[in-house]
Amino acid sequence: MSHSPRIRTVLSCTTLVAALGTGVTACGSSDGHPLSAKPYDAAGQIAFNGPVGSQKADPDKPLEVTAQGDDGRITDVTATDAAGRYVAGELSADGDRWHSTTPLAADAHYTVRVSTEDEDGAPGRKLLAFDTNVPDNKKRLKVTFGPEEGKYGVGQPVTASLSAPVKGKEARAVVERALKVRSTPATEGAWYWVDSETLHYRPKEYWPAGSAVSVSSNLRGLKVNDKLWGAETKPLKFTIGDRVEAVTDAGSHHMTVYRNGEEINSMPVTTGKPGYSTRNGVKVVLGKEYSVRMTSASIGSSDFYDKQVYYATRVTDSGEYVHAAPWSVGSQGYANTSHGCTGMSTGDAAWFYETVRQGDLVRVVNSYGEDMPTFGNGLGDWNMSWKTWRKGSALLTGAKEGPSVADAARLRPQV
Fold this sequence. Notes:
Elements: E1 12-17, E2 23-28, E3 40-41, E4 46-48, E5 64-67, E6 72-81, E7 89-91, E8 97-100, E9 109-118, E10 123-131, E11 139-141, E12 143-146, E13 151-152, E14 158-162, H1 169-178, E15 179-184, E16 189-195, E17 198-203, E18 212-217, E19 228-230, E20 236-240, E21 244-249, E22 254-259, E23 262-268, E24 281-284, E25 287-295, E26 306-314, E27 321-324, E28 342-344, H2 346-355, E29 361-365, H3 386-390, H4 405-411
């Protein structure tokens, strides 16, 4: 179908006012079509390759809308599912054909809005609707978000556990693009692929105190790869409390605790002795246990011990705690005598236990120990630079540092 160039005439509105105050308004286009004219039904002007009647479409099959005859063209096509997800597509320059360029979602209801115009420029409209089926013999990829709903400290990352491994940049990009983290106030952040089944999300800086965070996924029905399709995901909401940070100086044998930047306590402590030096770096509080039995078997220590400790605040998966150590009070503030934990008096440990919550920060400095790893032993996410963290994203790899338009839309969402 060919079209000769058409010259659009300028629309004009003229108001005639009679001498006695009676006004007559004329508004229209010079080709004879009133601006308020109702679009005509374009059913006879287009063809659609979607299913007929109660049949369902194969989500792997691209959509296609084509113009029929020589008396018009397609001007726009918008396809969305019930969740509001748009289908990307391309419209040919001559308006003869539109086709989708991304896969449809499985088990979804779609609405397709087609706009046309005839050879005189009059607008036409057609609304199409259909459902997609669920491909046979395909696995459903489930996502479980963490932590649980509640209130957390400013260092708490968001975790996403996948029910099946996802490999390859394109497949990971599909998953990551579907995972949404929104916060009030808006905070820049990004996902990091820890491994093929685990992602962590953290802001560039710690969460602002008092933030509200919501996490959701629109992965349902989306094709991840030839074997995986997204499943429904339970959303998550949690809030952030005050910024509480404990700084343990293994060199001076003291811990100082801050709330929103103000010092609220300082206490003598003992940390790991030579051979068991406490790890340096930022650790996130994982939980609290009133009573914990600690034995040398847990760390392979050559000197045997077996103690019941109280007011134990866990900061690593391998068993590093901040806890009461009444047997070492004489060394607290003077020497490091523990097997890696931070020990303090029973009174100070009780105060610390009652003051901190999961997600609060415990930072160790001036220890002879190794650095806290980013992953694999609790939540060491904050020990990685932001520049390096961004490289762990399937969407931001290779992206330049800075507030690009894409980053702003994805990483600074509003509730």
